[in-house]
Amino acid sequence: MSKTSGVGTDSDATYNIQHGKVDTIGNDEGNRTSPSYETERPIEDATHNQVAMNSQNTKHSIDHKSDDPGVQANMKHGPLDIHDVQSKPEIEQICRDEKKTFLSKTKERTGVDLDKSDINAVVTDSSRQAIKNGGTIAGLKFNLIVAVSKNLGIGLKGGLPWKLKSELKYFSQTTKRVLDPTKRNVVIMGRKTYFGIPPSNRPLRDRLNIVLSTTLTKHDLPDEVLLQPNLEAAMKFFENNNVLKNSIETVWIIGGAGVFKDAMASERCHRLYITQIQSNFECDVFLPTIPDDFQEVITEPEIPQGMQAENGINFVYKVFEKR
Predict the structure, then answer these.
(1) Which residues are registered as beta bridge partners of 315?
(2) Whole-prediction pTM value?
(3) Domain 142-322 carries which CATH code?
(4) Which tens digits make up the pLDDT trace of 125-149?
């Protein structure tokens, strides 16, 4: 198993994180999700059996408010250390026997001994936001998003060689989308990409804009736009600024070719969101070759499925993930 710096547990976990990779560990039944159990609602046979054998340790606290009678009983008599945080129950630690079982099962299935390693173990609830936040422990990651023609073109004379309003809308919605409404996303781009955006649209709204350049100064950009010399410097800037890091959700790389090349070669690169345009176009900027360690994955439900068409141009949305 590759070196790991963050491990999380979750029930009903079907989403993977964007800030860091997740390798979901299969349970005893070979499934990669372990749903919870509610009274009179057996979600999974093994979980149902566990309720019968160990009912007092079967908890439902996370999905209810702190004043729920069941939660109150768990807080008072249960084996978990549960605290009231803004009217929501929060589990602080696993009781000794359950922690021992969790650690031994993890070692048995992965070969990783959490008790004797530097791994940070995270116990999460059944929300994908919890899984997503847990991934930040493994180090800040980023995604790349780009539209590319059949001949690998991505730009012409500082702009786009095609007119696809629906694709621009997809780009905007994808790079703005957050699970936590108190946070926002980051878009990182090179100097030419930034100034290739129409003046009325830059900086890109509702996102933190970062421009990579060694020739520009802060006086060349609006106050709300950050300037960094290169991609790695920008990522370390976030990691060293806890206030800023905790205010962002997803980092997106949006161009140009040189930044894309550095991004795809980086261990921080998690996914490529590529719009594949099914036609050749005259271009003067081209997408670098995608490394072999990226493989296509099933897209999220928010991404339009199948072949799209606009202005006589066919295109399809694809997602690739670094193995």
Answers:
(1) 277, 308
(2) 0.62
(3) 3.40.430.10
(4) 444 444 444 444 346 899 999 999 9
